[in-house]
Recover the amino acids of this structure.
């Protein structure tokens, strides 16, 4: 008989509230409070998973986070949640649970054929076979191999669930709410600390409920008293179902909280916490150690304390005929506790010849057989245990007699000792320290502000663990300068001297000397022969062992495997475990959904979105918007039936013919003020600004320290000691940061302050021959050529709106930029549009703006890429020789002014086809033999003025090559066409239109 | 990781931008030597242990500061403003 629900017992279940979920489509009846695992065991489902490599049948192995086998997938389609531990997830009505990694079904898994070829799947097999001579083998076989091995599959659809992120701050974070953690939280709380106490389980108490007595009290009474005390403390925050998975620099811990597993009501499913703690108490407990023996992975083999947890918490017996295999006294007490709970314990097997007499007598009286001086040597049954073989064991020689016998059973419980859970301590501490007497690794020196308490320090006895927790909690509070309650304070210094034992009278036996396939790491399918093979092949360090065999990797992090593997490796090499050491544990301790890490930062919330004050106007006018950095800008205002190209060509034509208006609010605007403002700008720009008259603007270039071009823009002198600098949209934040750096680090003596006004000022550019006529109509100032000449800047009013007007031209037309306070810009814009009607004004978007500047050969971000210089772009006239400025010495390095460098040129299409940005300029007429790249196209468009496709390009020695015929090769988009290299100024090269 | 900003108090490092090695002296603006500038721009040691770094509180007070940080443990042991607002170093935990 497989597992079943006991007639009584079950502290976590409500027998009056049945629930039903499906496992691989089959209905499973459970009770409120069940985990998926407890309900599956109670319903007799022994086989729940297939293993990672060999597809071996696997059952539930544990009752907690250490589960290596029972990983399942929750939900389906978009809401798929793979690799969830059935031992942690609380079952809920209607939940759909699927087994993983089996096809066509769990019981008939064709992949199990891998098991037949097991010799080929030993450690390193894939790489030796497929990565050898001719790596193509790996390329070809990898997809198949990846499919054959593995765990659950993620969905490719967007996750429909809701996740949240939260930050928490506390004086003391207590990780783990077992007896040690509870006691630590209480003393730290009593000292006045703000405490967060958390545990991955839905109920506090750790394994206290698996004890009978804690000290002289019944365990339940102890726990009730402790919880009552904690519940009365307002400064102790309790967080259940919160799994701390990572310990990071600066005492920051990452944790994932399971909020709800059912997705039906749209609630948050998981919450990610970032916890900043001044001190941390780690009370993460210990995980039971299994034995390693042939066929030890068969469904029905599990940890002894897991069986006790199923009996006491869920009223579930893990089998109808149960054998317990232990090497210490506490294992016998577990057997007796199971028997008292109604679990049919048929036999206890112990390699030691002396069983603890009192508890052995109790068990014998209930009909349990005692096999002291025996070990389990084999397991019968594939999909479930049918029987085990046991044989006499001589502890002195470590040999097994071959006169064994067979015991029928359907569950085999293992209790070989305890492994302290030092994962978080290892993440934030020095190398773990091996304790010979305990046969375990204990936490190393803290690198962060943490204290370890309880079983993770090797204190297995619950009363001692709780006492230790109280002392450690007091020590944590004292470290913060708080005064713990008197009994705690008195004891805090003794925390390090708590009695350690794990557990009583243990025989340190892990691997049973018997032949057969014995698993060390169940999740990664690593066997004892893999460990030995690695050792033989020279992978002697435990870090190498891990990488060669995959032992202890990934989601499992070696919870039940690492210590056993180290014991085996140490024995194989004939050294002690400390010589082997242990690997550094890595986050996450428990797997964390990517959804929880992303939180709500997805889709539209991935990054902030910036809109200009004119955004809604653009939408109403039918603009197609485009993202430029974080900004949304109008791309074109396409009319019905108009293509993108037709729309921008129309807009650009209208600018050249009459007038257009465009939103320039996104330009970076930096107010530069102070008595040294002019000196400052002279040092920042390659050209001179101290000579700029008040009321005039000048185009400027700035370099990085390494001499490459950084940004460009116009800067306007508003007063003797006040300038308004404009930057490109993309670099606005970087330029400000650069200026602040220079003022703080390079020239703290300069009296200048810089302030971003990008969001405070918004505005429009008016371009086209009619723009002056329009301005004259709406502005209250003289805008004639003499009053407002080219590059002139003047304040004025449009109606009641104060504005700043600058006669600047990006398009090469007579043009103005007009700015107002951002709150007034919509009104300003609407007034301009209204007045522009009679001049035939159109709004134009980024595409038209782009082609207008292209016709003029003005460079933008496509050309100022961070790899181009002033000389490359033909702007050396602006490179002052008379003064010092940022980047000048390195810009003058010979290699950066070499005439053979790629230089800016214009490109004309000769075949009437677009020359695509990204195409390379080559000499070969045939696309099959293009020859080497001579340069590349940076931006392109259809020029209404030139009536053809034009482009800007960077061409080797380009300035000397005007008139040359080349080909634009664009093989990825099947383009290869003839082009002519020309000067980059296509239209109105002498600038008569904008100066007019 | 918290950085004890002298203006804003202890703030998460995500509010700051890293600004490079603060132990390397920037040449003056009058320095003409490309070699001197190349050394400043490109040559960096990679020290293990205590280090001085420039950080900029971009999502805060926007001050540039020198942060004392251990490159091995990542422990931040102090921060001081530079430039016109330079003051004595603050220790972590001064709120």
């Amino acid at each position: 008989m497989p597992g079943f629900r006991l007639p009584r017992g079950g502290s976590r279940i409500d027998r009056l509230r049945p629930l039903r979920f499906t496992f691989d489509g089959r209905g499973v009846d459970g009770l409120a409070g069940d985990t998926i695992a407890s309900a599956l065991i109670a319903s007799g489902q022994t086989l729940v998973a297939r293993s990672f490599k060999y597809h071996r049948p696997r059952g539930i192995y544990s009752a907690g986070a250490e589960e290596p086998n029972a990983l399942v997938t929750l939900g389906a389609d978009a809401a798929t949640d793979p690799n969830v531990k059935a031992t942690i997830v609380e079952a809920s009505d209607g939940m759909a649970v699927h087994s993983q990694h089996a096809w066509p079904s769990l019981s008939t898994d064709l992949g199990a054929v891998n098991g037949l070829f097991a010799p080929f799947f030993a450690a390193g097999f894939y790489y030796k076979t497929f990565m050898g001579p001719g790596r193509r083998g790996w390329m070809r076989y990898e997809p198949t191999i990846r499919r054959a091995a593995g765990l659950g599959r993620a969905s490719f659809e967007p996750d429909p669930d809701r996740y949240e992120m939260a930050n928490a701050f506390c004086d003391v974070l207590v990780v783990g709410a077992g007896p040690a953690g509870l006691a630590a939280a209480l003393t730290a709380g009593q000292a006045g600390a703000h405490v967060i106490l958390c545990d991955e389980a839905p109920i506090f108490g750790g394994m206290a409920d698996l004890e009978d007595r804690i000290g002289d009290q019944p365990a339940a009474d102890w726990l009730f008293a402790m919880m009552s005390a904690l519940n009365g403390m307002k400064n102790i925050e309790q967080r259940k179902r919160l799994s701390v998975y990572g310990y990071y620099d600066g005492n920051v811990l990452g944790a994932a909280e399971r909020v709800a597993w059912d997705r039906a009501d749209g609630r948050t499913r998981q919450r990610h916490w970032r916890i900043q703690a001044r001190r941390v108490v780690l009370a993460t407990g210990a995980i039971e150690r299994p034995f390693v023996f042939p066929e030890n992975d068969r469904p029905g083999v599990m940890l002894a304390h897991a069986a006790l947890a199923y009996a006491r918490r869920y009223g579930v017996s893990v089998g109808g005929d149960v054998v317990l295999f232990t090497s210490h006294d506490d294992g016998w007490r577990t057997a007796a506790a199971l028997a008292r709970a109604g679990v049919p314990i048929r036999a206890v097997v112990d390699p030691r010849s002396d069983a603890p007499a009192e508890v052995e007598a109790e068990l014998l009286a209930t009909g349990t057989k005692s096999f002291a001086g025996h070990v389990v040597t084999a397991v019968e049954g594939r999909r479930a245990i049918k029987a085990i073989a046991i044989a006499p064991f001589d502890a002195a020689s470590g040999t097994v007699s071959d006169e064994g016998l067979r015991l029928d059973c359907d569950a085999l419980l293992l209790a070989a000792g305890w492994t302290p859970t030092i994962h978080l301590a290892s993440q934030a501490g020095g190398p773990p320290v091996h304790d010979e007497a305990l046969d375990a690794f204990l936490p190393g020196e803290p690198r962060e502000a943490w204290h370890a308490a309880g079983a993770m320090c090797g204190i297995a006895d619950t009363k001692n663990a709780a006492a230790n927790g109280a002392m450690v909690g007091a020590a944590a509070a004292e470290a913060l300068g708080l005064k713990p309650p008197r009994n705690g304070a008195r004891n805090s210094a003794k925390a390090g001297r708590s009695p350690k034992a794990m557990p009583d009278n243990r025989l340190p036996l892990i691997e049973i000397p018997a032949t057969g396939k014995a698993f060390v790491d169940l999740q990664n399918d690593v066997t004892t022969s893999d460990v030995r093979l690695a050792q033989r092949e020279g992978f002697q360090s435990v870090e190498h062992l891990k990488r060669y065999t995959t032992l202890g990797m990934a989601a499992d992090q070696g919870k039940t495997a690492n210590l056993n593997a180290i014991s085996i490796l140490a024995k194989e090499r004939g050294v002690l475990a400390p010589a082997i050491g242990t690997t550094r544990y890595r986050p996450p301790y428990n797997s964390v959904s990517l959804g929880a890490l992303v939180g709500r930062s997805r889709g539209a919330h991935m990054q902030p979105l910036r809109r200009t004050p004119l955004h809604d106007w653009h939408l109403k006018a039918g603009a197609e918007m485009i993202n430029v950095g974080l900004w949304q800008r109008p791309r074109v205002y396409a009319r019905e039936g108009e293509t993108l190209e037709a729309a921008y060509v129309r807009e650009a034509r209208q600018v050249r013919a009459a007038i257009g208006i465009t939103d320039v609010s996104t330009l970076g605007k930096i107010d530069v003020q102070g008595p040294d403002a002019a000196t400052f700008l002279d040092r920042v720009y390659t050209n001179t600004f101290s000579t700029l008259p008040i009321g005039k603007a000048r185009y400027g270039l700035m370099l990085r320290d390494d001499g490459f071009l950084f940004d460009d823009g116009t800067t306007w002198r508003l007063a003797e000691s006040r300038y308004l600098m404009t930057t490109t949209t993309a670099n606005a934040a970087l330029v400000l940061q650069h200026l602040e750096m220079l003022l703080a680090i390079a020239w703290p003596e300069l009296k200048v302050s810089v302030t971003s006004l990008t969001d405070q000022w918004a505005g429009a550019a008016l371009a086209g021959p009619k723009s002056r006529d329009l301005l004259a109509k709406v502005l209250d100032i003289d805008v004639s050529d003499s009053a407002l000449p080219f590059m002139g800047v003047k304040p004025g009013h449009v109606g009641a709106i104060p504005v700043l007007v600058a006669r600047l031209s990006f398009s090469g037309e007579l043009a103005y930029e007009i700015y107002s306070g951002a709150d007034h810009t919509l009104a300003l814009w609407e007034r301009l549009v209204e007045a522009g009607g009679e001049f035939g004004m159109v709004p134009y978007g980024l595409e038209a703006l782009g082609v207008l500047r292209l016709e003029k050969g003005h460079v933008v971000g496509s050309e100022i890429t961070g790899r181009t210089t002033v000389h490359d772009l033909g702007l050396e006239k602006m490179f002052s020789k008379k003064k010092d400025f940022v980047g000048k010495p390195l810009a003058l390095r010979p290699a950066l002014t070499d005439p053979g460098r790629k230089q800016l040129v214009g490109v004309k299409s000769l075949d009437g086809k677009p020359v695509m940005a990204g195409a390379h300029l080559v000499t070969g007429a045939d696309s099959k033999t293009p020859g080497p790249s001579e340069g590349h196209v940076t931006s392109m468009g259809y020029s209404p003025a030139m009536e053809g496709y034009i482009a800007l390009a960077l061409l080797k020695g380009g300035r000397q090559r005007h008139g040359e015929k080349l080909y634009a090769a664009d093989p990825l988009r099947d383009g290869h066409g003839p082009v002519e290299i020309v000067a980059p100024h296509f239209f109105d090269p002498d600038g008569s239109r904008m100066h007019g | 990781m918290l950085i004890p900003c002298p203006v804003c108090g202890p703030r998460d490092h995500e509010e700051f931008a890293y600004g490079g090695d603060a132990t390397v002296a920037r040449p003056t603006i009058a320095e003409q030597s490309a070699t001197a500038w190349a050394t400043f721009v490109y040559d960096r040691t990679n020290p293990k242990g205590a280090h001085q770094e420039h950080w900029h509180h971009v999502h805060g007070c926007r001050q540039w500061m020198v942060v004392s940080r251990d490159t091995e443990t990542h422990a931040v042991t102090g921060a001081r403003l530079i430039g016109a607002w330079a003051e004595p170093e603050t220790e972590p935990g001064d709120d």
Notes: Chain A has a mean pLDDT of 92. The two ends of chain A are 99 Å apart (CA to CA).
